[in-house]
Write a structure and sequence with these properties.
5-stranded mixed β-sheet; 7 strands; two-stranded antiparallel ribbon; binds magnesium ion
Length: 160
């Protein structure tokens, strides 16, 4: 069986009063992520990891932030479109492992709902989707609560 891997990294600024979309869910918080789309940093890194796995450039190439049609767009739509590119090319997800770097709020109560949301969007099993969270011990832009970052790694398998 053929396999490929992909990696994604993304950052969004946090600002008071913005909605905080993360992993396809709206997380209750005083601050939210700022961006041209809904600024869902977790779904963005998953898109980038999937695109990277097939050397299909990056999320900004497919969904430019200069294009008004993506203003405020639900990143779930971007992820579904991205995964369509993967399956149309004859591949499917093996597994996905992500880390969100965020000082506050604690994500633990939301992780399983995010996993379910992403597994549902991709049509895969829950145990194929891993989401982890870490603070950066009050260091750097994440620690200062100026922003949120995320990383994702995917393994994809060629459909026999
Ligand atoms: Mg982004």
């Amino acid at each position: 069986m053929a396999f490929r891997i992909g990696y994604g990294y993304d950052v969004h600024q946090l600002a008071e009063g913005e909605e905080f979309w993360l992993g396809g869910l709206k997380v209750p918080h005083t601050h939210g992520a700022v961006g041209h789309s809904d600024a869902d940093v977790l779904l963005h890194v998953i898109c980038d990891a999937l695109l990277g796995s097939l050397a299909l450039r990056d999320i900004g190439f497919h969904f430019p932030d200069t294009d008004p049609q993506y203003k405020g767009v639900d990143s779930k739509k971007l992820l579904q479109h991205t995964y369509d590119l993967v399956t149309e090319a004859g591949w499917k997800l093996g597994n996905l492992d992500c880390t969100v770097c965020l000082e506050r709020p604690k994500l633990s109560p939301h992780i399983d709902a995010m996993r379910q949301c992403i597994a549902g969007l991709l049509g895969v099993e829950l145990n194929q989707i891993s989401i982890k969270a870490t603070t950066t011990e009050k260091l750097g832009f994440v620690g200062l609560e100026e922003g949120v970052s995320a990383h994702a790694v995917v393994l994809i398998e060629q459909i026999p």
